[in-house]
Specification:
Blueprint (H helix, E strand, L loop, with lengths): L4 E4 L8 H16 L8 H20 L5 H13 L5 H16 L8 H8 L4 E6 L3 H10 L8 E4 H4 L6 H10 L7 E5 L2 H10 L3 E5 L23 E3 L5 H5 L13
Parallel strand pairs: 1-2, 1-4, 2-3, 4-5, 5-6
Helix pairs in contact: 1-2, 1-4, 2-3, 3-4
């Protein structure tokens, strides 16, 4: 089956979230006078990320709202009882530093240019549309994607197959006609494969333990997961020349 579209994860796939988060948190801690409370910015960031993962899990389970998980991240991180207004204000100050460090990975624009004529594109993210739509616009790539779907609005998040199928439906394509590219081996890699998409796991660092994570060679090449270290490897997997000269199906 010809792959007609690529659906993308955003954070740490298109957008260098890890670097922006580290840079932003360092600047924020310095501005707030909180850095002296940690041995290093790495220790502070590790704590912030652990709290973020726990609170996001609560949001994914329907135990809190998107705004609620943000506020609780701040409260737990600071170890303080804050009002919603106080927590929102602290998080907004953090965002100022974080957003100043936003950047795409260097291999993103080249691969989007390469695939522009042959494949349609969409986004599926475990975030909110408000956050990711703005992020893509600031980074100058929003117009590259026909559809942007996020867990907060869908009511379901990756790795649930319903999330992947919703993204395929937005493009009016069957899962077997769609590739999904993401950086997380289970949430993205295994999730997309189990949902019937051609799954491409982007392992930029190449140092993750494989174990139960997707392997280098898929058992069934029609669904993946394929493991790549750079987006430069993607066109060969999705068949970048399969639709050259064909009528556009862009809607």
């Amino acid at each position: 089956m010809t792959i007609r579209a690529v659906i993308w994860d955003v954070d740490d796939t298109l957008f260098d979230y890890t670097t922006a988060d580290r840079t932003g948190m360092h600047g924020h801690l310095v501005a707030e006078g909180l850095l002296d409370g940690y041995e290093s910015v790495e220790q502070a960031l590790a704590q912030w990320r652990e709290i973020t993962e726990r609170q996001w899990a609560r949001f994914s389970a329907g135990q809190t709202s998107f705004e609620g998980q943000r506020r609780d991240r701040v409260r737990v991180f600071l170890g303080e009882t804050l009002t919603d207004t106080e927590a929102d204000a602290w998080f907004q100050r953090y965002l100022t530093h974080y957003e100043a460090a936003w950047a795409l990975f260097p291999d993103v624009l080249p691969v989007l240019d390469t695939l522009a004529a042959s494949h349609r594109h969409g986004v599926l993210s475990n975030s909110s549309l408000t956050v990711q739509d703005r992020k893509l616009r600031v980074l100058g790539v929003r117009e590259r994607f026909e559809a942007v779907l996020c867990a907060a609005e869908l009511g379901v998040s990756k790795p649930d197959a319903q999330a992947f199928h919703a993204a395929c439906e937005a493009l009016e394509l069957a899962p077997r006609q769609v590739a999904y590219v993401g950086d997380h081996p289970e949430i993205d890699g295994r999730g997309a494969a189990d949902a019937g998409l051609l799954s491409v796991w982007l392992d930029r660092d190449g140092d993750r333990a494989v174990g139960d994570t997707p392997g280098d060679t898929p058992v069934d090449a029609s669904v993946g997961p394929h493991r790549i270290a750079s987006l430069a490897e993607l066109p060969a997997i999705v068949g970048a020349d399969t639709r050259f000269g064909a009528p556009s199906t862009f809607r």
